[in-house]
Amino acid sequence: MRSTSRGRYAVAAAASAALALAAGCSSSHSSGSKPAAGGGSAPKNIQFIVDTGPGGGSDLFARQLIKISQADKLISSSWPVVSQPQGGGLGAMAFLKGKAGSQSYISAFTSKWIIAGLNTPDAPARLNDLTPIAELADEVQVIAARADAPYNTMSEFIDAAKAKPGALVQTGGSPNSVDNLVALQIEKKTGSSWKYLSFSDGGPRITALLRGDAQIDIGAESDFHDQIVAGKLKLIGAFGDTRLPEYPNVPTIAEQKIDLGQLPDQLQFRGIAGPPNMPASAVKYYQDILAKLVQSPDWLAYLKSEGLSSRLVTGDQLTALLGHFTDAVTPLVANLSKSG
Amino acid sequence: MTALNHLIDGLGTALTPQNLLWVLIGVVLGTAVGILPGLGSPAAVLAVLLPLTLRLPPTTGLIMMAGLYHGAKFAGSTTAILLNIPTETSSIVLCYDGHELAKQGRAGPAMGMSAISGFIASTVGVLALTFLAPTVADFAVKFGPPEFTSLMVFGLLLVITMTGKSPVKGFISMTVGLLLSTVGVDLFSGAPRYTFGSINLFDGVQFLVLTLGLFAVAEVMINVEQKRGKNLFTVPKGMRQLLPTRADLRECRGAIAQGSIVGFIMGALPGGGSTIGSFVSYTLVKNTSRHPEKFGKGAMEGVAGPEAANNSEAGGAMIPLLSLGIPGNASTSVMLAALVLYGVQPGPLLFTNHPEIGWPVIASLYLGNFALLVLNLPMIPLWVRILKIPYWILYPCILVLAVVGAYSVRGSMFDVYLLVFFSIMGYAFRKLEIPAAPLLMAFVLGPQAEVALRQSLILSNNSPLIFLQRPISATVLVLALGIVALAIFTRRRRGSLTPANPPAETAPPSEETAPLSDVPAASAVAVAHSARVDPPAHSPNSNERSSTS
Fold this sequence. Notes:
Chain A is of the alpha/beta class. Chain A has helices spanning 2-30, 57-71, 90-97, 111-119, 154-163, 178-190, 202-211, 221-229, 280-293, 297-305, 315-339; strands at 47-50, 81-83, 105-110, 131-139, 141-146, 169-172, 195-198, 216-220, 233-238, 268-274, 308-313. The longest helix of chain A has 29 residues, at 2-30. The termini of chain A are far apart. The relative contact order of chain A is 0.15. In chain B, helix 3 runs antiparallel to helix 4. By secondary structure, chain B is an all-alpha fold. Mean pLDDT of chain B is 75; it is low at 496-549. Chain B has one domain (17-228, 243-539). Chain B is built from 23 helices and 2 strands. Chain B has helices at 2-14, 17-34, 42-53, 58-83, 94-103, 107-141, 145-161, 167-181, 207-224, 246-268, 273-288, 301-324, 330-341, 350-353, 355-384, 391-410, 413-431, 437-459, 466-469, 471-493, 502-513, 524-532, 543-546, and strands at 184-185, 192-193. At the A-B interface, helix 1, helix 2, helix 3, helix 4 and strand 7 of A face helix 3, helix 13, helix 16, helix 18 and helix 23 of B.
């Protein structure tokens, strides 16, 4: 038995090596300017566009989506994942805009793409130029602090920030990220102020908390999970309608009576979009696959492991959701570019 | 002694015939793929081959990845030594002495030294990781923005001290590198800088495009215009000349030891990485060598030290990854991705929750290095044969690889045009005898320096005293001063070798510090930079920032 399993690995490895090479070749061929033909038949030679490099968030999301769809026989061939990392979503959106009318390109968008489009005055493309296909998942955002911090809730942190304006520090990514925008909103609504310390990677944000250079960090629960279990960090709030099942003692932002104004609790979401004017038949083709995917136990298990909750939204509801989010962040982004 | 027992258990788990087979396959594949520019960096190789390893059981997959990692790293050193193309940042230093050695017909010994010093350093790295991980992890957490700023000041000063004949030209080269590194979207304001409205420049200039133009294509251009038919390399004859001699090894003992320690420490800092480790090691070795005059003209120690640092770094980089779940560099980021895909979350609990993964990972890193030594020492004669390829075949091949490599980074024609631009720049630099390596180093270090400086000043409400109030930061600054003093001293001692009068080389920076006397004179470079190019740079690698999970 052992030898057969070894043999199987060897074959699998050889096959996947060949696949990887073939995928590499085909992606470099067709990522040229040749637009794929749109037509009535099911989409062929589908390519999955992501805005991060290999190993980045959207890249892994797309690869898992393809892997599980394939395992569940929802799709017959693997879709190559093509990275268009320029400008955090701008490059991917511009790439899709150039494929207008095609049915063979889809992309994994995040709420960040909306902000990227708003923040760049002459953005080559915006999310509302594209054809939204579905929203797939929400990433529940939580607020973490060092385990020995003197505040156990976000409202206590806000009180501390009011006592010493501009002294406390929140760490996070670029100032255009949702975690900064939501902080700016809270500061405005509560009349408090604190500093924002940018790090391009997630790791140094956690060490900044551990070191005491920063007091809070907004992110996904999975970012902090191990440090929480190890007793180094704690959660002081969660965005969402209900408390997290794993953290029944951590009150939601709404329970803490913190007003987010127009901003929804769902700050980080992931979805799938196609090029402008994607044929309705193609949109339906992808929606059918995704509707089956969200039933898959493997998919739900994957989402759970990443701290994502499944939420399939399509059609008018999706348009409304994206529109609402855009309206909520627009004034915040505008303030940002004025002050920055 | 429990750590040692665990390591031995780990080795036991890792040492199955199946795993050994996969680690060998990994090393061969890693080297083969890594030799191609464009796929050259270990991180890119790991990412490309990640799907392949995921079909294997976790331990085997990770062991194979370790093989790939080491194979790709060795490939980076190989292209730097043989062809003067550093495909990853940590092999830039090898272009100084490694390529010089190759030109003198000592390519084989240089590559052998790279593999041997790498193996020794890797041993040191794995042992240090096994015994010192908790201590070093605590230290790494204490390393915040002010500490990094001081470290970058240190690094940029080192760039100046190693500029060779003309410090002024070295300084020019470094300034151009700092300027180029400012292109892109600023992390702190989100504002695009020097992008001319093109989203192709939003993420800055790609390192590989810059390197290929500045080194590979420029090298071809310079050589083509020389007399035809002339041999560029002295091609060695016979096996004996293909490996380092006993004398070489004896000469390099100190360099390997220094490199191993420096590399390990730098690797352990989150975001530290092997680039600065190899720079620091090169300068340390140069300044403590008995033959500093040989550096830049083919010193074996100039290969041994940085390569040792480059390899012990892998051990160091596993510390933040395994103990904090924080990747130290691009390659460990991919390892992290692999661990997560296997359902293993690295972090403070990895060794408690998944001892069956944690220790074999460490053991497999070591095995990967061993496999590299065993496989590649006999392969060196084959690699060196590249030099025997006539130029009319080799040069078109290099040009094709350079164009394909530049294109494949992001699948963008824009990068190919940039390649042409940097090739012309590289050619001009050669003609004007401006060294290109300081440019590349400044390009790599500049953004890190800027980000850390601005983060520190945000923390301190713009008070520069923060760099002296934090003990580690202050210590690093004092060390930086020491290095400068040492460099000036050694330069004076062999004054006949310096064409410019020695005081001139340090005077301009210290004058520029005066108005901003926040930091000791040692930091002149960083300060001068931020004064000139305001607002300065942000790192081009914004992948992580943009990801939501």
